[in-house]
Structures are given as structure tokens and as C-alpha cells.
Design goal:
single chain; about 260 residues; mainly alpha; 11 helices
Length: about 260
Amino acid sequence: WDETHFGKMGSYYINRTFFFDVHPPLGKMLIGLAGYLSGYDGTFPFQKPGDRYEQHNYIGMRGVRLCRLFCAFLGSCLVPFAYLTVLELSKSLPAALLTAFILIFDTGCITLSQYILLDPILMFFLMGAVLSMVKCNSCADRPFSASWWFWLSLTGVSLAGAMGVKFVGLFVVLLVGLNTIYDLWDLLGNLSLTLVMFGKHLLARVLCLIVLPLALYTAMFAVHFAVLNRSGPGDGFFSSAFQSQLIGNNLHNVSVPE
């Protein structure tokens, strides 16, 4: 059922048809992008679960298959992410291999990753944020180095990705936030560290873990509204002034007072 739901939204992006959904737009935009890059024309109706894609032109429907391949690829990335995270935390190769082995044969992860769903995309960004956070912590002895900045920035990008797919991504924001508070509290208690240097640490985290994610999150909606410029099933959720900007709407180009 969910594949019917989110596959249809991918088609909306390809057809630039405005819709409304409870989740942020990033996951659906990536699904639509995967279909668009493969040549899918967005014509499959996604009316009910179980409809066969073979009913439509195969060449045009390769996009839907690529959407599945895209989600499967992101789902498969969870295995190396888990391996590297556990290896960094435990410094134990057997523990990291055991973690990867368990995840490879987890039927839930395999099932979620083989359909056009938001879940593998969400898990990709969630685990990417955790891995980046752990890697950044490992660079604590060389702050402001290139690797430290890279992992700190990548943590911020992953946080934006997780929030941009589903609001459940806020839980990893909470995790990274608690880790950052602990890290800053530890730095504040370091008597060998000057207040100026502590201020630099604080500013770096504000820029990479607050400003950068919020900027990217806002940019996702900017792209969302720029792409979806045609009238669709989501018009009624918005004001008349907004509807007047949608091509094909009854109010299109009508002067609507604020």
C-alpha cells in the first residue's frame, strides 16, 4: 500500500502536480528524481496495491524500477554504516562483522528496502548522522582539522536529510544534540582551554549542526514549491492567493488581495 502511496507522489513531482502530504518533501523528491533520471514519464496511475507495472510501456516504467533500485541501494548502505559505526565505537573487528552480518540477514530491513518507500531513505540519513557523529567524536584530539570539519558538516547534512524525509528524524537530532551538549560541557571544564577557543568550538557546532541543517531543510521546501507549479489534489489545503500561482487552477493569475 505504501509503495502505491509514495510512488504516486514521485509521479506528481515528475508531472509537476501540486499535492499535500504530512511528511516533509525530501524522500518523495528523491523517489521522483530517480524515476525522472531513468526516463519514467510519470504516467503509471498507482491506483491500488498489487497493480502490475507490466501493464504499461516497459521503457517508460523503468523509472519505477529504478526507484526500487534507488531505495534498495540506500538500504544496502545501512550494512557498511553499521559496520563502521560499531568498529569506531568498539575498536573490535568481530563486533563490527557480527553487526553487519545480523543486519544483512534482517528480513525487516530487506523487505523495507525492496519497495518504493520512505523508510530506507530515512534509515540511510539516520545511520549516516550517527556514523558522522561517531567519526567526528574520534577526531576530538585534532579539532578544526579538515577531517573534523568534514564529519561535523556531514553530520549536519545528515540531520537535514533525516528531518526532510520524516519528522521521526527529530529523534536523531535529539541524539546528536545530547552528544554535542556533553561534548561542550566537557570542553568547558577543560581548564587548559581558553574561553576564546571554547567560543570557536561553540560557533562551529552552531554553524554545522543548527544553521546548516535548517538552511538545507528550508531549501528542500523551496525546491518543492518551485517544482510543483501545476494544479493538483493539494490545492485546497492552501490559500486562494497561493492557488492563484498554480497553472491550471481556477484562480490562476487572478488578482487576490492579501
